[in-house]
Amino acid sequence: MHDDPHDMYLCQVSETVSCGACCGLYNLPNLSREKLEVLLSMRTEAFASVPRTEDGIYEFKRENKGPHRLSRPFLGFHHCPFLGLIGDEKSRVGCLLHPAVPGNNGVDYRSLSWYGEKACRTYFCPATSKLPSVYQQILLQTIDDWYVFGLIVTEHALVAAYFKEMESRLGRHITVSDYTQKGATDAFREFAELKTKWPYRRDDSPGPCNFFFENGLYLRPAVFRKTLDIPPSPYEEILRELDSGFSSAKEIAAAKRLLDDLFLKTERAILENMG
């Protein structure tokens, strides 16, 4: 399934790690991992019996337009009905129309998808060009499941802000070896999981999903502050990329402590590893 011309392949990584965000994987209301897994499992099972003909595939597409009748967080962004679970154990997300999927007999049916075969073959999210290779490699070696990976790998500004903070604390550039031991790996996974667990998400946030296409349609707003006395934060960029909103100075101070703890945990783990 390797169409990526870039040095590092961020779309299909391993048996449990992949990303379908550009196909609108997370563009669903009231998103939860459990709901998404149920949807993908049912869709994958149903597609297995679909005749591999144009009429058969289009009929499946019509029958699986449910997400398009919902109030999607980003109305101008599709949620492709051909997203499903792939691999030997059906343990990662992927395209059911790809020629490598069993039942397709090597035929590429992606021209029948929402965006067409050319878009599926040639589009790569901004992370592939905007994140330094060392950051990409750390993502690949630390995140071990598709749900969190797809949410964090497309957040290139958030990921860059995290690593820049770590580099500032260490007084040097981050290396891949910094994240080869459990302490630093666990701490980075905690940071990545803030995409789903962030307690200070603003009320009008679209949820954990992210519109990462750089066409200006859905720009991420500044951090929301309910009152003028809520101070700026040293983590302002991270807070913005986490879609944050605060009703009091006490809340933003608590958010700072949470991030302080995560960065301190990572810093200690890296320094201990250095001996």
List the helices and strands and how they pair.
Blueprint: H1 33-47, H2 54-63, H3 66-69, E1 83-86, E2 92-95, H4 116-122, H5 127-130, H6 133-142, H7 146-153, H8 156-170, H9 182-192, H10 194-197, E3 224-225, H11 236-241, E4 245-246, H12 249-274
Parallel strand pairs: 3-4
Antiparallel strand pairs: 1-2
Structure, explained:
The protein has 275 residues and is mainly alpha-helical. It has two domains: 21-124, no CATH class; 128-274, no CATH class. Helices cover 44% and strands 4% of the residues. It has helices at residues 33-47, 54-63, 66-69, 116-122, 127-130, 133-142, 146-153, 156-170, 182-192, 194-197, 236-241, 249-274, and strands at 83-86, 92-95, 224-225, 245-246. A two-stranded antiparallel ribbon has the order 1-2. A two-stranded parallel sheet has the order 3-4. Helix 8 packs across helix 12 and helix 9 packs antiparallel against helix 12 (249-274). The radius of gyration is 20 Å and the shape is globular.
